[in-house]
Design goal:
Layout (H helix, E strand, L loop, with lengths): L3 H55 L23 E6 L9 H10 L8 E6 L1 H9 L6 E3 L8 H16 L5 E10 L2 E10 L25 H82 L1
Parallel strand pairs: 1-2, 1-4, 2-3
Antiparallel strand pairs: 4-5
Helix pairs in contact: 1-5, 4-5
């Protein structure tokens, strides 16, 4: 059974740990808000790109054969080599954040196709290394600082290999922060389904068709490269926000557990302290009584 000093030291230790977890909670909260603000400030541009792609569809000028889209007369189930961009964190202490996204990415193995892995985040790199899975490209910059410049670098590398025919599909495994919950997703980035850009019948028809120079194919290629870079940037920021949110949740749980432990240990400490005081009073009283009885017997 622990003594009073042992319990007091444990309470002090838990309080020091609580200071660390509380500081980590506040830091994650600040980082998440900043990243979300950065994403919100760039989203209008990429939404405008999506509108322009839809405009091409609405005018009926979409080429029947474009490498970024499934051809009209081809079955969806493409075979061959797939590529997967895996986005994880650089560190733990974020609950099941890293585990969930890696679990989603590993479902690609069920297709029975060769997979080329592109990894952002130290956690994902180390796990693939432990499992003996080769990595095609490891982006060594930290996952803690997503930027548009880095998203374009990743996009350029993936598109270059895709255009060369190195793989037939590109997937992105990341975590999307929806509301106050995090959801690990495995999303096919390329090729797109045409229905993703098909205009609803409630929209007004195009009365004055646009002219595309030098051609609609060239304009579409430029738009799609920027759109894909925007998607990757969004995935990087969403993953970063989700990681911070998961870490906030984990640190809040740690703070709550620390409060509970401190409360329980404080009760135990007070009881033992009161018992020690009672024992000392009893011993003093017993000693005084013994002295009095000794005097009376003389």
């Amino acid at each position: 059974m622990p003594n009073i000093q042992g319990i007091k030291k444990r309470i002090d230790s838990i309080k020091e740990t609580r200071k660390i977890t509380n500081a980590m909670y506040l830091i994650s909260s600040t980082k998440m808000r900043k990243a979300k603000n950065d994403l919100d400030s760039t989203r209008p541009y990429f939404e405008a790109l999506r509108v322009e792609i839809k405009r091409i569809f609405r005018q009926g000028e979409m080429p029947a054969d474009n490498r970024y889209f499934y051809p009209v007369d081809v079955n969806e189930k493409l075979t061959g080599t797939f590529a997967c961009l895996l986005i994880t964190g650089d560190k733990g202490l974020a609950g099941s954040y890293n585990y969930n996204v890696i679990k989603q990415a590993m479902t690609l193995m069920d297709y029975g196709c060769e997979i080329k892995w592109y990894v952002v985040g130290e956690y994902g790199r180390q796990l693939l290394k432990q499992r003996g899975i080769p990595v095609e490209k490891s982006f060594l910059y930290t996952a803690q600082n997503p930027t548009m410049h880095r998203a374009r670098e990743i996009s350029d590398i993936l598109l270059e290999e895709f255009n060369k025919g190195s793989f037939t599909k590109i997937y992105v495994a990341y975590t999307d922060m929806r509301g106050m919950s995090d959801q690990a997703l495995l999303t096919r980035l390329l090729p797109f389904h045409r229905k993703e850009f098909v205009t609803s019948t409630v929209e007004e028809p195009v009365l004055s068709p646009f002219e595309y120079t030098p051609s609609v194919e060239v304009v579409l290629d430029n738009i799609m490269s920027s759109y894909i870079a925007g998607f990757i940037y969004s995935a990087l920021v969403d993953s970063f926000c989700s990681e911070q949110h998961a870490r906030m949740t984990a640190m809040k749980s740690a703070n709550d557990n620390a409060e509970k432990l401190i409360s329980e240990l404080s009760v135990q400490y007070n009881r033992m302290r009161q018992a020690a005081i009672t024992q000392e009073i009893t011993e003093v009283a017993a000693g005084a009584r013994a002295q009095l009885e000794h005097k009376e017997s003389l």
